[in-house]
Sequence to fold (243 residues):
Amino acid sequence: MRFRQLPLLGALALATPAFAVTVNMTDFTFPSNPRVVSVSGGTSGPSYSGAAGEFSGTFTDTATAASSRGSTLGLSTLDATSPTSFLAWCGELTQSFSFNTTYTYDRQTGLAHYGAARTDALSRLFTAAQGFVVDATTSAAMQAGIWEIIYEQGNSYDLTGGSFVGSLQDPAGLVAFNTLNGFLTHLSTYSASYRIDVLGNESNQDFIVATAPVPEPETWALLMAGFGAMGWAARRRKAAAAG
Fold:
């Protein structure tokens, strides 16, 4: 999956306060032909029918926020004082935004914004969907799954049933939709590996940013040892062939 996220958001779990950033969403990540998704929360929830999928944009720290975070949390090396590219997803259906327009957002942890249960479910969905989003169709299906977790009122997630339902309008996307729904109905079998953070704005649509887990130092050591062993084996095979 294409998760080139805000590098500074990976440290937000350490922070309770929200910090301001300026955000400019430029387009869908797959802009040539974004797929239409229809979702409905019935009589008690939001409904939407239109283009959906992952967004691409840039963010910039406000000078005040960067100074405050650096002094209080020791995160100054993670500040972004010049525009930095990132990817995000729609975090709500009740508000909108415009592409190529600058807004001010507050960065929050998913826990603070959605609570423990939904944040855990979102993290599991991103873990399950690693490698899934490769085009406009799979991107739209992923977005539908994110909305399902945010708006479903029941105790389980399934886009074909419950209080919140959804579908892709393109029949060719049925395989992608069914695959994504399979992730949703089996979330408990996946680990909650991804960090979930939210860009919140009271007047405009919120965005979700999912950050892939960073290997622990021990894991990096094992990986490097494995690469070294592979290189040694390759050199040995080359030497044997030359002899």
Notes: Residues 217-242 form the longest helix (26 residues). The beta strands are 19-28, 36-40, 47-51, 55-61, 84-90, 102-109, 165-168, 195-200, 207-211. The radius of gyration is 20 Å. Helices lie at 63-73, 110-114, 116-128, 136-151, 174-185, 217-242.
